[in-house]
Design brief:
8 helices, Rossmann fold
């Protein structure tokens, strides 16, 4: 998993005072550090297609229904060979313990038959919309869903929130996509055009063409989040300042565009934090994500 994901840091944020204090140098958390720990198990696994990646893991808390519901989207440079939904098991379990239900989706990456354009996007959409059919019986509250996406999943989480704004001629457009109330992007990179023009990003540039369909006249029209702005939902971006996967400028540029379009977008930069820490339950970055999540549901 050496090229495991991307990260977008965002500017103009209201960071908590504890996150602004200087910190000592640290050893960045590695993928091996995260995945070597005991793996918790979901309560249900549902299918929305025949492929092994067309699955959703459901994590159900104890307590009274309906449950506050989090839509979770994993990263991995949009490549199944790098990561799948299991990368999010530890933070999904942490949210379950905190009283949230988690709808952790998987999708076919660009390196898998049926992935790329439109398959990767269609999978993410179908996995999300399955909540309508299966969620009520599981006790999920569909009235206020918050999406959390990490790395490439940050891009997809924001894209899912903006589906109502897809062009009318897009094969990905649906009449009534599931509404998402808020998005928390953890080191995501929403701007695919900027990513394709940035050879210093950790995923490389070739993967973007495989994701968006390079043989189309305008491949970013229905795939890149800035083209869908304003999304009309609040967006929180949590990013590690020491993340070496994605250049910081990709984040600042996106936030500026979202704000200019009239969206509510905020950056929460966590010092002494790399890319993996963003989905480690014990990290300062994850504590910030849980603070934002609690605030999102309180509203």
């Amino acid at each position: 998993m050496t090229r495991a994901a991307l990260a977008v840091a965002l500017l103009l944020a209201s960071c908590s005072p504890a996150m602004t204090a200087p910190t000592a140098p640290h050893r960045p958390l590695t993928w091996a550090d995260l995945t070597a720990r005991p793996r918790p198990a979901p309560d249900r696994t549902l299918s929305y297609g025949d492929d092994a990646m067309q699955k959703v893991d459901v994590w159900l808390p104890r307590g009274a229904r309906p449950y506050r519901t989090v839509l979770m989207v994993h990263g991995g440079c949009w490549q199944t060979g790098i990561a799948d939904r299991r990368l999010m098991d530890w933070v999904a379990d942490d949210l379950r313990r905190a009283g949230y239900a988690v709808w952790n989706i998987d999708y076919r990456g660009v390196d898998r038959a049926g992935g790329g354009y439109p398959g990767t996007f269609a999978d993410a959409a179908a996995a999300t919309d399955l909540i309508r059919a299966e969620g009520p019986a599981l006790g999920l509250d569909l009235r206020h869903i918050v999406a959390i996406g990490h790395s490439a999943g940050g891009h997809l989480a924001l894209w899912l929130a903006g589906r109502a704004r897809l062009p009318g001629d897009s094969p990905l457009r649906r009449a009534d996509p599931l509404p998402i109330a808020r998005v928390i992007s953890l080191g995501g990179l929403p701007d695919l055009a900027a990513t394709a023009a940035s050879p210093d990003n950790g995923c490389g540039t070739e993967v973007v063409a495989r994701l968006v369909g390079g043989d189309r006249a305008d491949p970013y029209a229905d795939t890149s989040v800035p083209r869908l702005l304003p999304l009309g939902v609040p967006q929180d971006l949590v990013n590690g300042r020491e993340d070496r996967i994605i250049p910081y400028r990709l984040a600042t540029d996106y936030v500026a565009r979202a704000l200019a379009a009239g969206d509510r977008a905020a950056l929460h930069t966590v010092p002494a934090t790399g890319h993996v820490e963003l989905i480690a339950p014990e990290s300062a970055a994850w504590a910030e994500t849980k603070r934002l999540l609690a605030r999102a549901f309180a509203r």
